[in-house]
Each structure stands twice: as structure tokens, then as C-alpha cells.
Amino acid sequence: MTQAVISTVDLYDRDYFLWTDDIADKLRARDFECLDIENLIEEIECLGRSEKRELRSRLKTLLEHLLKRIYVDMPQEFKGWERTIKQQRSEIQLEFKDSPSLKRFWDDLFDTVWSVALENVRDEYEPKGFDFPDTWQFSRDIDTVLNTKFWEL
Questions:
Q1: 119/15 Cα distance (integer angstroms)
Q2: Exposed e or buried b for every residue in 97-108, given b needs 16+ CB within 10 A?
Q3: In angstroms, how far is CA 21 from the centroid of its own chain?
């Protein structure tokens, strides 16, 4: 029994894909005694962090393009920015559909990515004469951010 656990742990380091197949087979067979528990726990935790990173990345991109669309008067760019806004909103909504519990991180993620998005857009557009507010000027609840055409307000 100990030998099986050791070889499974070694397999994790040698061939990750084969390790996932082995773990899945053991779970299907209900062979819980031979599972590589420590690496399995780590992988499950990584899945949750990955989902949160995906949401953070999409929200940052959404805020960057919202800032550009709202505050940068470059009509030739509007359609592209609006397309990206629509795409990011759709992807975020799909993330919430798959993992509704991610919504509980919205406010913290918004705070984190707002400053990054603002800095990125300022770096690109303030030298061209465009100004951006220090704070988000609109409601930041999920429904509003994912559905409002702020540039029409």
C-alpha cells in the first residue's frame, strides 16, 4: 500500500497528465487508500484560485475598455472597445453561471483591478491629453457593471 502511494506521488512529478488519469481511475474505483491526497488537495485548491484569477483578468480588461469607451474621444475605436466590453461581460456572466459563489469576491476584485486598469489606461492615454477620474463614477454592483452602456449616460 505504501509503495502505491509513493509511486503515485512520484508520478505527479514525472508525468502530470498520467497522474490525473491515475487519480481519476482510483477515485472511480473508490480506492481512496492509494490516492495521492496531498497533491490532490493542492490541485483542487489551484482550481479555485484559477477561477478567481480568470474573473479578475476579465474584470480588469472590462474596466480598461469601459474607461476608454467612456472617457477617450476616439470614435474610430468605439466599435472595437464595445466589442471587447461585450465579450468580457459575456465571459464574466458565464463564469458566474458555472460558479455562482465567485460573486462573493466581486467587491474585492473590483477594488484590486480598478487601480490596475486605471493605471494601464492612464499610461496609454493621459499623454495624449485624456483624463480619467480617480474613482469609478458609477454603480459597481454586478448587474450594473455587466449591463449598462455607461457611455450613453
A1: 41
A2: eeeeebeeebee
A3: 27
Q: What is the reported pTM? A: 0.81
C-alpha cell of residue 119: 493605471
d(CA 124, CA 48): 33
C-alpha cell at 126: 493621459
Q: For residues 143 and 89, is the Cβ–Cβ distance under 8 A? A: no
3-state SS of the chain: helix, strand, coil percent to 5?
A: 80, 0, 20
Q: Name, in order, each residue with C-beta under 8 angstroms of 71's C-beta and a sequence gap of 6 or more.
A: 125, 130, 131, 132, 133
Query: pLDDT tens, 5-46?
Result: 446 668 888 888 899 999 999 999 999 998 999 999 998 888
Residue 56 Cα to chain centre, angstroms: 4
Does residue 26 contact residue 34 with C-beta atoms inside 8 Å? yes
Q: In whole angstroms, what is the distance from residue 146 CA to residue 102 CA?
A: 15
Q: Give the type of residue at 148.
A: T
Q: Give CA–CA dist 109/98, Å, rounded.
A: 18
